[in-house]
Design brief:
Blueprint: E1 10-13, E2 16-22, H1 29-37, E3 42-47, H2 54-68, E4 71-76, E5 78-79, E6 84-91, E7 97-102, H3 114-123, H4 125-128
Length: 153
């Protein structure tokens, strides 16, 4: 069985900092955000998505790249034991898929440019304006009957 660790892990190759994540980690924006805040240029994830999970997989991975201005490299399990759908890919710091291998074994190859990460983080205000948390939420009370309408499709 898998259990969450006490913290993240990264390693450096030359000028590039790689952060590691395993499968389910990439579903949580705060995991990739912590890696980026710790200096990661590339977020590595190995995972296994079931049939029907392509849209969610691609959305999560592109969002982790865009939200954090870093590359996301995904290695997707293909086939047995649960007919996993693969989808290995590389996303650039703007969330664009720049390399892919769909539905089969293979290797997705892309150039990693640390200068692009720096440029995106400088130019995209959402990275510079990021806060550690949203702060406290206050409740102002309940709306009265009829204030909210629901419709049926």
């Amino acid at each position: 069985m898998f259990a969450p660790g006490a913290g993240g892990f990264s390693f450096r190759v030359g000028a590039v900092e790689f952060a590691l994540s395993v499968c389910y980690d990439a579903n949580f924006p705060e995991h990739a955000a912590a890696a980026a805040a710790a200096g990661a240029t590339v977020y590595l994830n190995s995972g296994a998505y079931f049939p029907g999970g392509k849209r969610r997989r691609d959305l999560h991975l592109a969002a982790r790249a865009l939200d954090n201005g870093m590359y996301v490299v995904y290695s997707g399990l293909v086939g047995a034991p649960s007919d996993f759908i693969g989808g290995s890919a590389v996303f650039d710091p703007l969330g664009r898929r720049i390399a892919r291998v769909d539905g089969r074994e293979g290797v997705a190859i892309a150039d990693i440019d640390p200068a692009l990460v720096a440029d995106v983080r400088r130019d995209q205000r959402m990275w510079a304006d990021r806060r550690d948390g949203p702060g406290a939420f206050e409740r102002s009370g309940e709306l009265g009957p009829g204030a909210v309408r629901t419709t049926r499709a």
